[in-house]
Specification:
- By secondary structure, this protein is of the alpha+beta class.
- The protein has a domain of 91 residues: 2-Layer Sandwich (Alpha-Beta Plaits), CATH 3.30.70.
- 33% of the residues lie in helices and 22% in strands.
- It contains 4 helices and 5 strands.
- A 5-stranded antiparallel β-sheet has the order 2-3-1-4-5.
- A hairpin with a 7-residue loop joins strand 4 and strand 5.
């Protein structure tokens, strides 16, 4: 791990942050339906995307993440699903995603709940910067 890189979150930290985010999501009565959730990753051993294709490097991970219940976009190191996050989902989904990430040389950074017309709610080890006007 690079000295500038934040320490990796444990499963317990993902669960704790996720539980807080789920409580915040539950208070949003305008978005009761399922919404997009983005899962974020970074590389254990980064490649240079100017010389090596991210998509080609991580294409093999798409089926593995599908087994974990998400659609992985290898060119962006993101995985997406449309869901209403709840505790049962958190307890089942996060360990499966962490395991899939570790198997392909990625680190799971957390997830963001992203309805189209509001700021995201995050359960991630980084601050979300979003240029939405809402």
């Amino acid at each position: 791990m690079d000295e500038a890189e934040p320490p990796r979150w444990t499963i317990a930290q993902h669960f704790a942050a996720g539980s807080i985010a789920i409580m915040q999501i539950a208070t949003d009565r305008a978005h009761c339906a399922r919404q997009p959730v983005c899962h974020h990753f970074y590389e254990v051993d980064p490649i240079d995307p100017r010389t090596v294709s991210m998509e080609a490097t991580y294409r093999h991970a798409v089926p593995l993440f599908a087994l974990a219940g998400v659609d992985f976009l290898p060119d962006r190191l993101e995985a997406w699903e449309t869901i209403k996050p709840e505790e049962e989902w958190l307890q089942a989904r996060i360990p499966a995603i962490v395991e899939a990430a570790e198997r392909v040389g990625l680190v799971y950074r957390g997830w963001t709940w992203e309805p189209r017309d509001r700021q995201p709610i995050a359960a991630a080890d980084f601050h979300i910067i979003n240029n939405r006007t809402v």
